[in-house]
Write a structure and sequence with these properties.
Layout (H helix, E strand, L loop, with lengths): L6 E4 L9 H16 L3 E6 L9 H14 L5 E4 L4 H13 L3 E7 L7 E7 L5 E6 L3 E6 L7 E5 L2 E2 L1 H11 L4 E5 L6 H11 L5 E5 L2 E2 L15 H7 L3 H9 L14 H7 L10 E2 L2 H14 L2 H10 L3 H4 L6 H6 L1 H5 L7 H7 L25 H16 L8 H15 L1 H13 L7 H24 L1
Parallel strand pairs: 1-2, 2-3, 10-11, 12-13
Antiparallel strand pairs: 4-5, 5-8, 6-7, 8-9
Helix pairs in contact: 1-8, 3-4, 4-5, 7-9, 15-17, 15-18, 16-17, 16-18, 17-18
The chain binds one RNA strand through β7, β8, α4, β13 and α9.
RNA sequence: GGCCCUAUCGUCUAACGGUUAGGACAUUAGCUUCUCAAGCUGGCAAUUCGGGUUCGAUUCCCGAUAGGGUCACCA
């Protein structure tokens, strides 16, 4: 066995979409491997014919690719039965395993013949790079089954054989595999093969501190992708779940992660998955994305009612990108905002009740009308190309100051948006343009008189 | 229940055996042009408990407690 090269693997079973925990394990393997110029292997563990599905394999591969965790080599256990058979026969021939006739547990009453390992019933001790020595008494394991028959290996046998054949140097996997390790070591010893290095990383936990399982809400990478998380944000967040650089730095590119990652800094205890923090990371990444890319993503998440309205056009959407950008954490928030009615008014005259034009303590709509008329006057005097937020503000500020900011600003903003909450009136006016702004102001006045 | 792993703010975490126990998210107050968002400034908030070892334990050891994982003819 060549020892010099670092070789790692992840071994997902295609019984579900790529799980967030598997993705994080893949990431740690990937970072460690790339840092050491090693090889990262993906091995699809599909020995269970009943539960393995091609669609899940496709999903796993697809999402790993989306995350940027490319593998150097892909294997499928279902294509390697001949190899396992050789090892099972060896074990049988050397008396380290035996055939056992017994009643099927799966199918009551059916007689079958399984392959069991002869357990030497000894204490097994192994070193875990992040946990130190771990000791087990394997007696309680009994003569466990390693294959359903000579052609159908079970998990433990297949894993041991593959890790050996593929020359895996470091097995970096979830903590839930600690208890599997002694079994696998027993098989290695029966086979007389070398032991790889073990690294058991902490689990990702749900809010109630239990292992994230498929039945929990959002556990597949696909779901996060669909909701509009950015892959780099997901990577960054997952890297910091259970690992830290030892400094206060939190934002990392994948290359920085490869550079700074270290197994020694991996945490021992499980980490709760915190969607709020992930959202924060996602915002940070959205900030860095180019206008074009943002535009594309926002448009994709716009509901049909907006896209299909006659007033819709890309120009306006482009203008409100900064406004939207500040209000979303993930792309699907665009849809949420739209559904709450906070986007319509950029495209068409909003409907609203006249009383809404009144600022808090004010009660006289006639004064509102008078003020709006005055504002229209100001606006008329601004040339089209100077109709910008800053300019508008400069021109009406003194007047607003004199009449009371709320009394002036609120009606403008409300006349333009028809909403109690919106961006400020200057921004709105700029987006809408001189003509539309003035038109909406006139509309408001007409409603009053 | 057996075996195994783990234990710092609500959450993710930092701290050669000596720090006012630090940062981030969340939260909270204030500021910033009316409302919102963003931004800025400040606040609240933790070493599970009990024994040791030590001049001195978040840190080392033991125990308790709590949480988690695992106990297949799944992986």
């Amino acid at each position: 066995m060549k020892k010099s090269q670092i070789k790692t693997r992840i071994a997902p079973s295609p019984t579900g979409d790529l799980h967030i925990g598997t993705a994080r394990t893949a990431l740690f393997n990937y970072l460690f491997t790339k840092q050491n110029n090693g090889k990262f292997i993906v091995r699809i563990e599909d020995t269970d014919k009943e539960r393995s599905k091609k669609e899940f394999e496709d999903n796993i591969l697809e999402e790993l690719k989306w995350l940027g965790l490319d593998n150097d080599k892909l294997y499928r256990q279902s294509e390697r039965t001949d190899i396992y058979k050789k090892y099972i026969e060896k074990l049988l021939k050397e008396g380290r395993a035996y055939l056992s006739k017994e009643e099927s547990k799966a199918k009551m009453g059916k007689q079958i013949e399984v392959v069991r390992l002869k357990n030497p019933n000894k204490k097994v001790e192994f070193d875990d790079i992040i946990r130190g020595k771990i000791e087990f008494d394997t007696t309680e394991l009994g003569n466990f089954v390693i294959a359903k028959n000579i052609n159908e290996p079970l998990y433990h046998l297949a894993v041991v054989v593959d890790d050996y054949e593929m020359e895996i140097s470091h097995i970096i996997r979830g903590e839930d595999h600690i208890s599997n390790t002694p079994r696998q070591i027993l098989i290695q010893e029966a086979l007389g093969i070398d032991r790889p290095k073990y690294v058991h990383i902490p689990l990702i936990l749900t809010q109630n501190r239990s292992k994230m399982s498929k039945r929990d809400n959002a556990t597949s990478i696909s779901e996060y992708r669909r909701k509009g998380y950015v892959s780099d944000a997901l990577i960054n967040y997952m890297a910091l779940l259970g690992w830290n650089p030892g400094t206060n730095k939190e934002l990392f590119t994948i290359n920085e992660l490869i550079e700074e990652f270290s197994i020694e800094n991996i945490q021992k205890g499980g980490a709760i998955f915190d969607i709020e923090k992930l959202n924060w990371f996602n915002r940070e990444y959205i900030k860095k994305i180019s206008e074009d890319e943002i535009f594309k993503n926002i448009k994709q998440n716009l509901p049909k009612d907006i896209l299909n309205m006659s007033e819709y056009n890309d120009k306006i959407l482009k203008k409100i990108i900064p406004i939207i950008k500040d209000r979303i954490s993930i792309w699907s928030d665009v849809l949420k905002i739209a559904e709450e009615g906070d986007l319509d008014y950029y495209f068409k005259q909003p409907k609203y009740k006249t009383e809404g034009l009144l600022w808090k303590t004010d009660s006289d709509l006639n004064i509102v009308a008078k003020n709006l008329l005055k504002i229209i006057n100001f606006f008329e005097n601004i040339s089209n190309d100077k109709f910008s937020s800053d300019e508008i503000k400069k021109i009406i500020w003194d007047f607003a100051e004199k009449e009371g900011r709320g009394s002036v600003l609120w009606p403008i903003r409300y006349a333009l948006s028809g909403r109690n909450k919106s961006p400020d009136p200057f921004q709105l006016a700029e987006v809408l343009g001189k003509k539309e702004t003035i038109s909406r102001l006139h509309n408001a006045i007409n409603k009053i008189v």
